[in-house]
Amino acid sequence: MSQTQSDAEPQKIRGVFSSQEVRKVGTGTTTRKTIQKTFWFCEEKDDGSLEVQPLNSNYIPSGPKKNVAREAFLSHFAPEPELYMRSVYPKMREINKVVARAERYRANNELYSAEMEYGNALKVDVENVRANFGLGITYLERGENEKAQNVFTRLVKLDATFEEEHKHLFNEFGIKLRKNGMTDQAVKYYERALELAGQDENLLYNLARACLEKKDMARCLDFLFKALAINPRLEPALKFLHWLDGKGLVPEDKKKAVSALRSEFGENGRPAADAAPPAVPPPAAEES
User: Fold this and answer.
1) In the chain, helix, strand, coil percent, each to 5?
2) How far apart are the C-alpha atoms of 134 and 114, rounded to whole Å?
3) Is 5 within the bounds of a domain?
4) Do 68 and 99 reside in the same domain of the chain?
5) Which of 16, 57, 207, 270 is buried most deeply by CB count within 10 Å?
């Protein structure tokens, strides 16, 4: 934690801290006390909350994050500036460079080079979310679904997968799962995303798309209506409903609700009077 002058804006807490826990080992007359020291990477958020994450054996922040009350943090966590500057900061910077290099390779369709770099990052931090996503997407782009399945299994267990900062990555990954025929995994993945990230119209829309491919029309429509309840002008969802209606896939008990939405918002998310009348492509042509 940095010391600043009283007239300067206080700096946010960011760095490595340690906590100690006294534990009893053994039983009876052999009982003894040991002190266990744990190192954490701590970062103060814009709202003033403090988030801590343990360091792994490679001195990389890894594993589940948790919020700690400021008073408890100041009482029980001790700063470790030397460890941060000597080991943690250089390693964090290096792994970010490796992942960024892998992402450039993937963007250039150099998929085997991308795989190698993502693998290098995961050797240091097996829970690195960007590296896991990138490796999974790389496998999906190469059609290696079995390898992608292994990454998928790891990702759905990591709460950090579905944090706001990774939203563009987890949306892309879910879409590619579905496009590669891994529909069951896509549904499970989106359901996990909704559980951790909260209700989001784009996630609900993509979940409806996956349910369509599973021919689960009841859930498909349910998720579409939930997406439109959040954003009644969500154009892909309105087009999707229009396409389903045109195919006779909307049951009678839902037709009134569909008609009401189309009457109020049109087929493209604009007021009906301004809605363009061209033919609507099937939802397979749309992405969100």
Assistant:
1) 60, 15, 30
2) 8
3) no
4) no
5) 207
Residue with the two structure tokens 């309105």: 238
- On whether both 222 and 127 belong to a single domain, the answer is no
| Dihedral-angle region of residue 40 (phi above 0 means left; psi in -120 to 50 means alpha; beta otherwise) | beta
Tokens of 195: 């559980």
Tens-digit pLDDT profile for residues 108-140: 999 999 999 999 999 999 999 999 999 999 999
Residue with tokens 């390779």: 105
| Cα distances (angstroms) measured from residue 246 to each of 236, 251, 268, 279 | 15, 12, 15, 11
CB atoms within 10 A of CB 195: 10
Counting DSSP H helices and E strands in the chain, the numbers are 12, 5
Does a structural domain hold residue 2?
no
Rounded Cα distance, 37 and 66, in Å = 17
Cα within 13 Å of Cα(169), Cβ side = 21
Token pair for 26: 């053994």
pTM: 0.76
What is the average pLDDT across 259-287? 49
| pLDDT tens digits for range 136-165 | 999 999 999 999 999 999 988 887 887 877
- Helix H or strand E segment including 14: strand 14-25
Rounded CA gap, 152 and 214, in Å?
19
Q: Are 259 and 253 in contact (CB under 8 A)?
A: no
Q: How far is CA 40 from CA 47, 67, 84, 269, in A?
A: 20, 12, 10, 47
> For 176, how many CA atoms within 13 A lie in the half-sphere containing its CB?
22
Whether residue 117 sits in one domain with residue 32:
no
